[in-house]
Amino acid sequence: MAKNKKKHKSALNFRGKKILPQTRIQLNELVDQVLQKCTTFAPQNPKQECEEYREIYKILQKICVIEKEYMLPLPVRQNHWEGFLAWCKQHGTQSDKVTIQPLDKEEYGIVAKSELKEGEVFLTVPRDLIISSTTAKKSKLGPLLEKDAILQEMPNVVLALHLLLEYFDPESFWQPYLSILPAEYNTPLYFTCEELEELQGSPALEETVKTCRNIARQYAHFYKTFQSNPAAKSLLLKDFFTYDFYRWAVSTVMTRQNSVPTPDGASRIQALIPLWDMCNHVNGIVSTDFNVEKNQLECFAMKNVNAGEQVCIFYGVRSNAEFFIHNGFVCLENPHDSIVLKLGMSKSDPLFTQKSQLCKQLGLPVTGKFHLHAGHEPVEKRLLAYLRVQVIKDDDILKINEEQNFDWLLNEDIQSTDHLTQDALVFLKTRITLLLRAYPTTLEDDEKLLQNEELSSRRHLAIMLRLTEKRILSSAFQYLINISQS
């Protein structure tokens, strides 16, 4: 069914007003400060990154105070579920066996109305309901997409601006969907600096702050674009683009986006999928597919589900740091969890050149990110190989060069008794010890803190993340101890 055949009156109340010239001047100055700080500062370490973001955050708060008076209202989702479900059904969605119900803490989810069998299709969503980078090109945003270099390289940003443009249009086909989106999220973009400080010591803090800084830079870039670019003159975004709205749109995309095939199935595009995106995450297997012949997304039950039970899907193999940054939640029992180790060869090392050459031979970075994993085998094979190179001595390098034998450095046997493996594991135990000491609290402290019902939801999330990281580190350390004693 074509989208343009019938318009849907918005249930939202748009009463925004344009910014006065004098206020615009003040706002322009603050936006320039954000852009300058985001583009000229090159932090040398996570501490500097956090300190600089704190300054950016202060400016953003001033911007939000000014923009608040001119804000359009964000969704009040609890008022629009009936209209949304009717809209979905009218346009071809099949969802008779499930519905949307409120869960704990003002969250919502998909719940079975009748018994579902494992493998049974419980939801289909036609392509016509999906918001994607393709629909963005066909929208009023199209001319700007052809000229803006950032948009050409970042489909997720395209989706965010497309979402805003549709939200600002009371006659948009997607208003029933837009009206049931959350008004705010638990992504890091909504954390105060004080709440982010709960991540002190966490390897995820640097990536979290970088994400916040990048979104601030994007806001400043597009604010200026909408004020000056001829291709943006006809867009409502010129008058109503604010930081709060942008972080809302970005968070919507971060937490809900997925990829779907193009109509010919030749490639994949980023998309927002109404109704399907109400499914919450649970560990399992991917149970969603796109039927190109029927031109619809199809979602299957991962297991048998009784009437009244929540129907969840598996979001994919991701660490808790990824869930935290991009989805705004943490899964305490995540079998795919891991923690990042940033390792590098010191240039002051007399063997730096030789070690760098060995890394190249083995397909390893000289400086890069490695992972310790949750579960029974925490040390990935590429990490073990890298650590062997890290601790290698002159005699070993001579032997390797003489024999031209690099394969033994890739030996996956972590219980090998050769001195390189043993030295590598000692190095790793030391690194884990240092990482655990970097946290201001212990694992036991965090477990007690999580029992505090007065914690804000975002502090709770941050503590959950660092707790899962400490579990991995502690488990990996014990694993290495057991190996050394075996």
Structure described in brief:
By secondary structure, the chain is mainly alpha-helical. It has 19 helices and ten strands.
What does this structure look like?
The structure is a single chain. The chain has 486 residues and is mainly alpha-helical. Helices cover 47% and strands 10% of the residues. The strands form four sheets. The protein has a three-stranded antiparallel sheet, with no helix packed on it.
What separation lies between the terminal Cα atoms? 66 Å
Helix fraction bin:
40-55%
Main β-sheet description: 3 strands, antiparallel
Number of strands: 10
Order of helices and strands: HHHEEEEHHHHHHHHHEEEEHEHEHHHHH
Q: Mean pLDDT, rounded to whole units? A: 90
Question: Gyration radius, to the nearest Å?
Answer: 25 Å
Described by its quaternary structure, the protein is single chain
| Dominant shape | globular
Overall structural class, as computed from helix and strand content, comes to mainly alpha
Largest sheet, spatial ordering of strands:
3-8-7
What fraction of residues sit in β-strands? 5-15%
